[in-house]
Specification:
By secondary structure, this protein is of the alpha/beta class. Helix content is 34%, strand content 16%. The protein is built from ten helices and ten strands. The structure holds S-adenosylmethionine.
C-alpha cells in the first residue's frame, strides 16, 4: 500500500518570526468545523485511492491552534498516521504527555544552528526552549526528528546541530535548502558541496543523520531522491488553499470549494505537470539521472523560474 502525505498548515499564527519563513499571512487559523470537513474529505480520498494516509500537522505553529488536540485525536481515531512539525518552544511536560497520547509517528522540531545562530534566525531564547521541548518529548518516548533549513546564515552550523542532536538523543536529523524570494539567503553550489560533504562524513559518526533529500546522495553515492510533488503529497493551508508543494508557488484550488478530492487532484493540470517525468537539459547524459531526476524543483524554480531545469546546486 502506497503512503500519501497531507501537510496541513492548520494555523498561520506563530510565536516566532523566523528570518526565512515562507508564511506571509500570520493571522489565520482554520476553524474546527472546516478542519472536520477537510479531514472527512481526506479520509474519503485515501480510501478511494487505496493509500495509507499520513497527516503532518504544521503551521505557523500548530500547537497554538486552540483545537490542535481535538483534530489530532480525530485523525488518530480514523487510524490515519500523525506527524507534527513544531518549533518545539511550547512543549512542556504536560504538552509532551498529551502528544504521547496521540501516538504520533514523529514530532519534528526545527533547529537552525547552534544557540547564537538559531536565535538570530528564530528569535532570542528560542534555542533553549526548543531543546527543552525535545527533552520532554524524548522523556515521553516520542520519536524526535530535527529539521535543519540551510541558508547563508547557517550553512556552516550543521556539525554543531548534529552534536546537539546526539546529546539530546534526537532520532533523526535531516536538512534541506531554503526556498525564498530573498536571494541573499541562497547558498552557492560550493557551499552546498561543502555542507553535503560534511553531512556525509558526519553520518558515519552519527547514524541518525539522514542525507536523503535532493542531491544529498552525491558524496555517499547512495540511493536517489524523488520529488513527491504532484504524486503522493498534498498541502492544505489554514485558509483552505491547496498546493502540490509548499515550496512551489502554485495554488491548485481550495478544499472548501471541492466536494471530492480524488477527481479534482486527478484532473488538475499543475498536479499532472508535476507528476510527469522531467528531463532537464544537461541531465540526460548524466549517469546518475535515474536516481536524481533533476534534483529539487522547488529550489531551482525559486532561483530560475524554470520547472524543468537542472538543480541550481548540482556540482557534477
Ligand atoms: C513552516 S515551519 C512550521 C512548523 C514550526 N513552526 C517550525 O518552526 O518548525 C516547518 C518547517 O518549514 C521550514 N521553512 C520555513 N520557511 C521555509 C523556507 N522559506 N524554505 C524552506 N523551509 C522553510 C522551517 O524551517 C521548518 O523547519
Amino acid at each position: 500500500m502506497h503512503r500519501h502525505f497531507l501537510q496541513w498548515h492548520i494555523t498561520h499564527e506563530c510565536n516566532l518570526q523566523c528570518l526565512h519563513c515562507y508564511q506571509e499571512d500570520r493571522h489565520y487559523a482554520m476553524p474546527y468545523a472546516e478542519m472536520s470537513e477537510t479531514l472527512d474529505k481526506y479520509e474519503e480520498y485515501i480510501k478511494a485511492e487505496g493509500f495509507e494516509g499520513q497527516i503532518n500537522l504544521t503551521g505557523g505553529e500548530p500547537l497554538l491552534h486552540p483545537d490542535f488536540f481535538r483534530i489530532a485525536a480525530d485523525i488518530r481515531s480514523l487510524g490515519i498516521r500523525l506527524g507534527i512539525l513544531t518549533n518545539g518552544t511550547l512543549i512542556n511536560e504536560d504538552t509532551a504527555k498529551a502528544l504521547a497520547g496521540l501516538t504520533p509517528v514523529f514530532v519534528q522540531v526545527s533547529l537552525d544552528g547552534s544557540e547564537k545562530v538559531h536565535d538570530h534566525i528564530r528569535g532570542e531564547g528560542s534555542f533553549k526552549k526548543a531543546l527543552k521541548g525535545i527533552d520532554h518529548l524524548k522523556t515521553q518516548g516520542i520519536k524526535v526528528l530535527v529539521s535543519f533549513t540551510v541558508m547563508q546564515e547557517n550553512y556552516r552550523e550543521f556539525r554543531k546541530v548534529a552534536a546537539v542532536c546526539a546529546s539530546h538523543k534526537a532520532d533523526k536529523l535531516w536538512w534541506d535548502r531554503v526556498v525564498t524570494d530573498d536571494a541573499a539567503q541562497y547558498i552557492t553550489t560550493d557551499q552546498f558541496k561543502e555542507i553535503s560533504g560534511s553531512a556525509a562524513r558526519l553520518a558515519k559518526k552519527y547514524p541518525f543523520i539522514s542525507n536523503t533529500r535532493a542531491l544529498q546522495w552525491i558524496p555517499e553515492g547512495g540511493c536517489g531522491y524523488e520529488c513527491s510533488a504532484g504524486k503522493r503529497l498534498l498541502i492544505i493551508l489554514a485558509n483552505g488553499d491547496m498546493m502540490a508543494c509548499r515550496r512551489l508557488p502554485f495554488v491548485i484550488g481550495n478544499i472548501g470549494q471541492v466536494p471530492r478530492l480524488q477527481p479534482m487532484l486527478k484532473s488538475n493540470d499543475i498536479m499532472k505537470k508535476l507528476a510527469a517525468p522531467v528531463f532537464p537539459k544537461g541531465c540526460k547524459e548524466c549517469p546518475h539521472f535515474y536516481k536524481c531526476a533533476g534534483g529539487a524543483r522547488c529550489v531551482t524554480y525559486a532561483q530560475t523560474g524554470l520547472l524543468n531545469a537542472r538543480d541550481v546546486n548540482c556540482y557534477l
